[in-house]
Amino acid sequence: MKALVYGGPGIRALKQVAIPTVSRPTDAIVKLTATTICGSDLHILKGDVPETGPGAILGHEGIGIIHDVGAGVSKFKKGDKVLISCITSCGSCAYCKKGLQAHCLEGGWKLGHEINGTQAEYVKIPHADYSLYDVGPLAGKVKDESLLMLSDILPTGNEIGALNGKVEEGDIVAVVGGGSVGISALIAAKTYKPALTIVVDFNEERLRIAKEVFGADIGVNPGKVDAVEEIKKLTAVQNTGARAQLHPGVDVAIEAVGIPQTFDTCQKIIAPGGRIANVGVHGKPVDLQLQDLWIKNINISTGLVNANSTASLLEKVSTGVLDPSPLVTHHFKFDEIEKAYDVFSNAEKEKCIKVFFTFD
Ligand SMILES: [Zn+2]
Ligand SMILES: [Zn+2]
Fold this sequence. Notes:
Blueprint: E1 2-6, E2 12-16, E3 28-35, H1 39-46, E4 62-69, E5 81-84, H2 94-97, E6 122-125, H3 128-131, E7 132-134, H4 144-148, H5 153-163, E8 172-176, H6 180-190, E9 196-200, H7 204-212, E10 218-220, H8 227-238, H9 242-246, E11 250-255, H10 260-269, E12 270-278, H11 290-293, E13 299-301, H12 310-318, E14 328-333, H13 337-345, H14 347-350, E15 354-358
Parallel strand pairs: 8-9, 8-11, 9-10, 11-12, 12-13, 14-15
Antiparallel strand pairs: 1-2, 3-4, 3-6, 3-15, 4-5, 5-7
Bound molecules: zinc ion (ZN) (2 copies).
């Protein structure tokens, strides 16, 4: 089969490799029908993720058809259409029972990280019963472009952004960072009916897409205005009552970049009682303004996706509450994956949010 193989920092190639086979009773082999590229694949390619070594097949998102199952797999059989979760979960360890599947003792982020991933014609999924979702009943009802967004980025935006940030009806929500995960957080947050959504990004095209395609109310470009002052002005007008006039700000600030400056913006725009939900992957320390935050009763949350909201997101997608399909901006054949990596690596210039691969 063909697979995208990591060859060490800066090196990737579409290669012929052996089709995986069942080695443990709980394994399933899935024949991919759709896959995509994630920002974390680019981190691996840069050499930022040392546990992923040369020879690894990348990718942790996908849709496919069950090709083979081990004797211990009870929920799936050959021919079933499945959504692959980016998080592998055994379903029975102490972390899985706590809803912390990201830290599953036999799972977590394994695919395309510690074991071969989904940028291939076939992939082996350990603990298949808890790491796959049956999407056969949605065939013909929900676009595969929507389903594929539920492997990783929508659960991430929902769990680490909207749910950790406790977005409630009537809230003012700012998403700082308008890339694919920021937009996913926006989409997820909007299902909880906030009164106002603001997206902050330096890129005008991203702001346009956030507003026109995904329904953000306001785009703020820190390259053109002082984003903190602008948001304080906006929220002072939108809020009602004396308190709001004295302490303008947002109820929920979702950080979706992962650099000190964007975290700082969140600290400066948060209103008393607000929640800062950090989604971005940080590579260095931030300057935590605890002396200002404590007296404003601010909560800060962080996390790696558990992908335990996937079933509820599938429900929202199937009933039309949620349509993440416009996140897919580019379609490719799987054979074109090397070209697609070039496009995705230049996402801003190429106006690319997510790519979608089909297989022959
Ligand atoms: Zn990912
Ligand atoms: Zn577990």
